[in-house]
Amino acid sequence: MAASRIVIENCAIATVDANDTEYACGHLVVADNRIESVGAGDAPADLENVVRRIDGTGHLVTPGLINTHHHFYQWITRGLATDHNLFDWLVALYPTWARIDEPMARAAARGSLAMMARGGVTTAMDHHYVYPRGAGDLSGAIIGAASDMGVRFTLARGSMDRGRSDGGLPPDFAVETLDGALAATEETIDKHHDPSFDAMTQIAVAPCSPFSVSTELMRQGAELARRKGVRLHTHGSETVEEEEFCKELFGKGPTDYFESTGWLGPDVWMAHCVHMNDSDIAAFARTGTGVAHCPSSNARLAAGIARVPDMLKAGVPVGLGVDGTASNESGELHTELRNALLINRLGPHREAALNARQALRLGTYGGAQVLGRADQIGSLEPGKLADLVLWNLDTLAHSTIADPVVALVFGAAAPVTLSLVNGRTVVEAGRLATVDEDAIARSARDEARRLARIAAEG
Q1: How far from 68 is each of 113, 135, 152, 371, 417, CA to CA, in Å?
Q2: DSSP 3-state assignment of 16?
Q3: CA 295 – CA 297 distance, rounded (Å)
């Protein structure tokens, strides 16, 4: 059967390929779920089976944005503990989070995914680690929400086995046993992980953080991931307090602790990595360990400024993350493009820290590297999967910025005229095409109120 083709013409294009190739006025052709061609000028005139031809005048086409760290369930606990640092924030919110159930997880996942997809995210991930006893199939609910929306998705199946009675932060009834966490994680991999080139759902092994899991869960989690051929994810070096905790409990800093448990390598990525010294950065570069940079959340929780320019210079793979919407209430990734650039300019590199194209690369190709999918997504190149966004820059907000990439990154959030995932339309004219976003908002609001009532009752 002949391939169905979508043609986008007369638009600026930022391919984010190895050479940062751009076209001031070019075309892009999608054949089924792959990018067939991209180049300057008009598309070839003799293309067959063109089912849609789009005039992209006033628009910029980029790869779809890739989110590399999130906690979807937090969508229904936004706007709480707004003046807390990380540890105080966790203490304040864990009693509420520990009462989530399957309908809440589904509604929160749909809300989180909808907000990201509407803003140009085509590949999302969720680090879900709160599995209260009797809460239902939380992983299935989250994966189902992503499938319904048509977004490419990685579930980082998290876990915690260090409750309050063992010196951890979460209530005991919200943590799993070592054996239970490992068994549930393996079951999730077996049921849902797709290793194929155009996979829509993948699973990673993701114990929560050094201060909420045992060393044995870290070690055996890494062994499980490598036996199953999936990636590994956790939080790392987020705060000064975490470094002090690791030194007190393990006699070494976070990076050395991670290395001792098998948690450095090209199949690993860590969230935050704010407090990294030169030796830590060198270890990540040497081992190919990736970083999910979450500038808005890091600022919201007063964690600090990650050394992203130094990481990039050393060769560390770096992507962007929204992080949970209880610490980044906007819940969309364009904010992270802009804040990654602006916040890093407050660091020692000042105006030379990052530029607009580096920020766009973090949010696209960098994210693909971190998720282990750089040969499939993250840039606009023939043969890659058709995950792309057509941004409308023909607006009042962008009207006097001549450079389209600068307009996208430095400017206000640009409306999404079209978003394709695997060649299928997910956003059309700024609205979700696959789900009812108004119904999603109502459901999330109802579940947020139900959770608040349950938490208040204790």
Answers
A1: 13, 26, 12, 7, 23
A2: coil
A3: 6
Handedness of CA 414, 327, 215, 308 (dihedral sign): positive
Beta bridge partners of 389: 62, 419
Rounded Cα–Cα distance for residues 247 and 263 (Å): 17
Residues 6+ apart with CB under 8 A from 454: 99
> Quick one: tokens of 173?
């009834």
String of DSSP letters for 132-154:
-TT---HHHHHHHHHHHHT-EEE
Contact present, 366 and 317 (Cβ < 8 Å):
yes
Above 80 in pLDDT, residue 458? no
| DSSP code of residue 335 | H
- CA–CA separation, 336 vs 363, rounded Å? 8
The pLDDT mean for the chain works out to 96
Q: How far apart are CA 379 and CA 220, in angstroms?
A: 35
Maximum distance among all Cα pairs of the chain, rounded to whole angstroms? 70
Label residues 302-327 b or e (16+ Cβ within 10 Å = b): ebbbbbbbbbbeeebbbbbbbbbbbb
**What pLDDT is attached to residue 260?**
97
Q: What is the pTM of this model?
A: 0.97
State pLDDT tens for residues 170-221. Answer: 888 889 999 999 999 999 999 999 999 999 999 999 999 988 999 999 999 9
